[in-house]
Q: What sequence folds into this?
């Protein structure tokens, strides 16, 4: 083999690998490195503090609140999004103009920017004049504070996330449902299987790879939430909507505690890594293939 | 033969026989009721997704006092087109728009340049370390911007690259997702076609450009759409990497409307939001089938 032929593959992957090394791999290590220091970004001196940042983090009430918020937000968003999407997929899995329109309608938030959706829902959820309070008023409920009250703010963000995410997940589920071979259902019908049993023993197992895929994507996305919080609540009121990424942003960009923020980043990294590993483990164990 | 009544027929056919007309009616009614409930359900579902947009449109045409009414009025007295002008004038929107174009197009071009050769190499060559390098590529899929923004910001700041197109474009100059998709596609190109081209003394780059790329066109188009929309809509990365208007993009401009006039002027804000949303919504309604198919079927893979 000529020398060029041997080197060629490396030359072809080099640009991409360079970009990934520089902007993805290296920053991770740099962040881990920074988490062991105290640094205010402006001074040229970084003070080594070892694991002190991590110890401080876990003793900080605010950070523990932030962790709690992140997990609650993720749990609610994932269960509601996946649950509702599955239900909608079973309901809307039909052809026809009407169902096409409905599928299009629920998918439309997916391509709109998160900024637009955040701004729109900030207005919808306005405690005084927002449309949402009018709608729930039709059902006999009184006005709610939504984003302005610590007890309801996080759930309001969950509602927005579910509204945005349901369409995409539903359509992916529908695609998954349609890829299940029809003869399995015919066989079940011949055995006079009841609808619930058919669903539980056939549909659900055959859909499980898709379910796991969407659950993990949803989980990863939920832990990474930032834009909605930045635009709609800025972590408040009273830190009730402060989550990991926003916390890192605050301590890095507003309070200039770079080491501290990096330590929080390392925590996020660990959480994401665990979720990813869990996913691949569960994938090989519980998933049913044909 | 004279027609027999139901009572006369029953003894002949068994005591639990009902004339066909009676059973058909109750089934028909049940089916009708289900269809009505289904219809109501579908309508409610569409409303849940259409009403917010309708409300946005309605608000964008109101005067400020008209927005501060509860219960809310849907139709404004007059169409206040002014709101759109005011929204547009809150900042250098044309400039923001150009920046968005430069960034999104720049990213896409660089991605094509880095992704196509890499995908080809991973798909069709055996070389030492290819497994490791491909694994490394796939790992970056798990590394979101929200994890690395702080260290990258510090890097960019140290190199004085903040507020430049480099900071907005370079980190996305390649795409693991694109490499993954394209590698699949390239792997499916039949061996014989490539062999035939090699026999014709075709150079490698000719094989790539004249055979592989055309065969992978649907995937490339899908990916291009993904990438363009994602980076056009991106708010987070430009937020972190810019401190002034030099390279600021459209999403940032729109969000800023909120802070311009002191109190929140929802009518102007929604007008600005319309400017951002309407082009995409219109394209969506026109090309709905293709867009959904592209996004969803690549999600399923």
A:
């Amino acid at each position: 083999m000529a020398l060029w032929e041997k080197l060629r593959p490396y030359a072809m992957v080099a640009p991409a690998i360079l970009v990934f090394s520089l902007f993805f791999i290296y920053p991770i290590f740099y962040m881990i490195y920074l988490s062991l220091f105290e640094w205010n970004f402006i001074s040229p001196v970084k003070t080594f503090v070892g694991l002190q940042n991590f110890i401080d983090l876990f003793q900080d009430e605010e950070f523990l609140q932030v962790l709690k918020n992140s997990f609650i937000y993720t749990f609610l968003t994932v269960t509601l999004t996946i649950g509702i999407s599955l239900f909608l997929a079973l309901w809307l899995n039909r052809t026809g103009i009407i169902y096409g329109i409905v599928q299009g309608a629920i998918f439309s938030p997916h391509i709109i920017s998160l900024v637009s959706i955040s701004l729109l829902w900030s207005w919808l959820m306005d405690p005084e004049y927002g449309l949402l309070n009018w709608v729930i008023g039709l059902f006999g409920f009184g006005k709610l504070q939504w984003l302005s009250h610590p007890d309801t703010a996080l759930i309001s963000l969950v509602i927005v996330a579910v509204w945005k995410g349901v369409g995409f997940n539903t359509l992916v589920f529908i695609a998954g449902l349609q890829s299940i071979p029809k003869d399995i259902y015919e066989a079940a019908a011949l055995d006079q299987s009841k609808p619930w049993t058919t669903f539980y023993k056939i549909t659900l197992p055959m859909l499980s790879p898709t379910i796991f895929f969407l659950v993990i994507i949803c989980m990863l996305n939920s832990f990474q939430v930032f834009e909605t919080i930045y635009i709609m609540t800025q972590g408040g009121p009273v830190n009730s909507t402060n989550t990991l990424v926003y916390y890192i942003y605050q301590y890095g960009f507003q309070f200039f505690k770079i080491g501290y923020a990096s330590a929080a980043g390392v925590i996020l990294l660990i959480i994401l890594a665990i979720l990813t590993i869990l996913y691949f483990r569960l994938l090989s164990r519980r998933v049913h293939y044909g | 033969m004279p027609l027999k009544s139901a009572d006369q027929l029953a003894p002949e056919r068994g005591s639990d026989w009902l004339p066909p007309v009676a059973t058909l009616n109750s089934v028909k009614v049940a089916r009708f009721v289900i269809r009505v409930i289904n219809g109501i359900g579908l309508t409610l579902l569409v409303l849940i997704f259409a009403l917010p947009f309708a409300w946005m449109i309605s608000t964008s045409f109101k005067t400020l006092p008209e927005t501060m009414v509860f219960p809310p009025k849907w139709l404004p007295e007059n169409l206040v087109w002014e709101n759109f002008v005011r929204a547009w004038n809150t900042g250098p929107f044309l400039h923001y728009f150009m920046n968005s174009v430069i960034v999104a197009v720049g990213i896409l071009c660089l991605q094509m340049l880095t992704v196509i050769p890499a995908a080809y190499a991973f798909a069709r060559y055996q070389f030492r370390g290819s497994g490791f390098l491909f694994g490394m590529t796939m790992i970056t899929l798990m590394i979101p911007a929200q994890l690395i923004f702080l260290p990258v910001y510090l890097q960019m700041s140290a190199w004085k690259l903040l507020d430049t197109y480099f900071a907005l474009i370079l980190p996305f100059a390649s795409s693991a997702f694109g490499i993954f998709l394209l590698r699949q596609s390239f792997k499916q190109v039949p061996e014989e076609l490539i062999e035939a081209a090699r026999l014709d003394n075709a150079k490698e780059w000719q094989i790539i450009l004249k055979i592989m790329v055309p065969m992978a066109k649907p995937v490339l188009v899908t990916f291009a759409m993904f990438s363009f929309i994602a980076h056009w809509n991106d708010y987070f990365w430009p937020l972190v990497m810019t401190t002034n208007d030099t390279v600021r993009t459209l999403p940032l401009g729109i969000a800023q409307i909120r802070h311009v006039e002191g109190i929140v002027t929802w009518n102007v804000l929604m007008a600005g939001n319309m400017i951002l949303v309407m082009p995409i919504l219109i394209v969506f309604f026109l090309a709905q089938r293709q867009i959904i198919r592209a996004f969803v079927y690549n999600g399923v893979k």
